Fold this protein.
Amino acid sequence: MKKFHLYLIALVIGIISCTKTDTPDSETPIDLSSLTPEVTSKGMPTGSVYTQQVGAAGGNVQSPDGKISIDIPAGALSANTAIGIQPITNEAPMGAGNAYRLTPEGAVFARPVTITIKYGGDMKPGLSWIVTQKADGSWLGDRNTQTDETTKTLSVKTTHFSDWGTGKLIDFRLAPKNTVLKVKGQVQLYVNGFKKMEPAGDDELVPLAPLYKKNADDDALAPLPVLLAEKMEQLNNYKLDFKEWRLSGQGNLKPAGSRATYTAPDKIPSPNPVTVSVNINATNNGKTTKLILLSNIKIVDADLYLLLTVDGTTYEYYQYGFNGSVPPDPNNLSIANCGIDDNLLSVAGTHVQNNSNMVSSFALSVSNPAEGTVTLKCLLNNGQDDAQFTLGSQQAVYDMNQIIRTPIPGPGCDDAAKCANMTITFTTYENKWNGKVTGTFSGILYEDKPGFSDECKSTIAHNITGEFNLVRAN
């Protein structure tokens, strides 16, 4: 039987929506022999290169901001060499904090040099390490990373240069942080990690190979099989203790150690969304870190929806007529729709009470829609894109026209108009009738109140975010 070792390199708590009515008691183990190291693109430069000459006598090279230093001992170099440090984006699996390109890239030292990088943010002592990327795009983590909590630094010894950065040994999160679930639906929470492959030769660098690849629609790795969950207590250096799962709100939560299943109630609860939390004690080499993880779950009436948030207030619109769905109350209609005309896609919602009293409406139009992220280009920028929100019977209108009014000598104002900043991401776009259209949007819309022009007042900014799961009606 093939010998393998498991080592808990990084953990992700992921959420996957499902429509099953029951939760399986066991999971099918995966074939560990087929795992391959995680490969990503190289980091992009975020600053200029700092260089310093170091010779055979050795020396210390430190970046101008003091976030990384390289200690080169005597005898590591045989001749004067320009040592370079350039900040880059951190593309490592579970990468967090700073990353750098060290040059000459591929340089090999006769004696080990020490790389020291400051850590910060949400990185925790004892649960973080230094990682490096190989030429083929795969990543290695240094299991001999030293942590100094006083200086908040991580240090490793190496004999070569490449791209180096900081990352998390264990990464805890409920992902997505916010999710949408239909009434009576279920959400399952899992733990994931990496398999430890054997280090090459005497090097302490070990490749990172995810047990499951990322799902296209998820920002976390897929669920961990029961295999690793059963092995957790047998790991020498790491231990996870899932102390308590809690549900704040209506519904049902069924915990099972490192995973849990939430079932939504049969009608929209109040308050909405509900919150699921879990308390975890993570122990690494005798040091315990206590964590509380949260996930907000929005309960909706139908599978097809447009959810809009304006200045913190949420407006819900549903696309009925598909999947056999019908409006629950004909006197309180909150309807969403999605259609296309001359390559201009519209996503819209309207809430009407008693057949005539409009509560709110929203419309967003995008030319030449396609999967990916775009910035809306309104008429002021010679584009066709648009977004508008109308609130209540007073007909307060927020749109993409930002008007900046500046007083000038004498009567009147100097008016300057420009497009609002609004982006939309299509995670799914099926260019056909009844095709699936999903995504998110965010930005700012502006309100020009009556009298603002006479008073020389600029338009008022309103924060807009939203998500949609719709089908094209034409």
User: Anything to note?
Assistant: The radius of gyration is 27 Å.
